[in-house]
Write a structure and sequence with these properties.
Layout (H helix, E strand, L loop, with lengths): L8 H28 L5 H10 L4 E4 L3 H15 L4 E3 L2 H4 L12 E5 L9 H10 L3 E5 L5 H5 L2 E4 L15 H21 L3 H6 L4 H6 L3 H4 L1 E2 L5 E3 L4 H11 L3 E5 L5 E6 H6 L9 H4 L6 E2 L5 H11 L3 E5 L5 E6 H6 L4
Parallel strand pairs: 1-2, 1-3, 3-4, 4-5, 7-8, 10-11
Antiparallel strand pairs: 6-12, 8-9, 11-12
Length: 329
């Protein structure tokens, strides 16, 4: 009698792939269905959070707690002051962190999480606005809430239909939708984002030219009719390898680089600065991303850009060296 064949390694790999595809498809389709049918109170929640004078307090237990922490962190880093309060710690003194100036968002898939009881009571006692986020609109949490973010009743993506998978994905996605909607309503910009992310690669990518440039006082400025011997002395003294020509009004009229000196070496000291300058140099405004300045320098094969104001007056110098040193790639 012939025995059944054992699954091959390829069979096992295909089974794993099918599982992953099923889970991702189930969760993705659930998010799309929620996008097409947002909780009715979503706009009112945004208005409430915009009007908050204190912080947005998030809380939850277990998986909901992990999601609450992430939502709180996203809010805080995008212009909405926020803190996570652990419900068990709240019951042992941390309720004092939740004030009448705050707004609470409590997360519970079932809406019957016992550990949230003291937080719910605290908000009702002191008139603190409460937003419930749950799948069950008739649950204890949702009945007590001022506004309700009701999750769609989508099945969990796991094989037994019990492990928090689709429900946590929906909660996280809804939290992101809240954060982005608040960002846009506040007019939160890239430079604001960098203020909350000064460290690491992200902070470097969001650095602005004026934050990395050499200041105006360090610039090698020369007049258009300056003799070349004086111009070379100015360039050497400042050590940037360029000189900035300025007209009588102080506006940038050109740039002399080491390359300009080499190209005009014959009879150099019989000339004036304006005779050899590049009259249309590449420049950068102070509010340009440093990463964009690096792109210009790389594409134009230059190592520095003069930073000019709206009247074309030189106010700084951004160098490729300084950008790379700061981690701007």
């Amino acid at each position: 009698m012939q025995g059944s064949q054992r699954p091959t390694e390829d069979d096992a790999a295909q089974a794993v792939i099918r599982t992953a595809e099923r889970v991702l498809r189930a969760e993705g389709e659930a998010v799309l269905r929620m996008a097409a049918n947002l909780p009715a109170d979503f706009p009112a929640v945004i208005r409430m959070l915009l009007a908050c004078r204190g912080r947005v307090i998030l809380s939850g237990i277990g998986k909901s707690g992990h999601i609450a922490r992430k939502i709180s962190s996203t809010l805080a880093s995008t212009g909405t002051p926020s803190s996570f309060v652990h419900p068990s710690e709240a019951s042992h003194g941390d309720l004092g962190m939740v004030t009448e100036a705050d707004v609470c968002i409590l997360i519970s898939n079932s809406g019957e999480t016992a550990e949230l009881g003291d937080l719910i009571t605290h908000t009702r006692r002191f008139g603190i606005p409460l937003i419930g986020l749950s799948r069950d609109p008739g649950s204890t949490l949702m009945r007590a809430s001022d506004l309700r973010l009701v999750l769609p009743a989508e099945p969990e993506a796991c094989a037994i239909g019990m492990a928090p998978t689709t429900s946590t994905t929906l909660t996280l996605a809804l939290g992101d939708a809240l954060a982005v909607a608040l960002m846009e309503q506040r007019g939160f910009l890239k430079e604001n984002f960098r203020d909350f992310h000064p460290g690491g690669k992200l902070g470097s990518r969001l650095a602005l030219v004026h934050q990395l440039m050499e200041p105006a006082g360090a610039l090698p400025l020369v007049a258009e009719d300056a003799p070349m011997d004086a111009t070379v002395i100015t360039m050497s003294g400042k050590g940037f390898g360029i000189a900035c020509l300025v007209d009588e009004a102080g506006r940038l009229a050109g740039v002399i680089s080491d390359g300009d000196l080499r190209r005009n070496i014959a009879g150099l000291f019989d000339k004036k600065a304006g005779d050899i300058a590049t009259r249309t140099p590449h420049t950068a405004p102070p509010d340009m991303l440093a990463a964009e300045a690096v792109k210009i320098m790389n594409s134009r094969k230059v190592t520095a850009l003069v930073v000019i104001d709206e009247d074309r007056r030189p106010i700084g110098l951004i160098r490729l060296h300084d950008c790379l040193k700061a981690g701007v790639a």
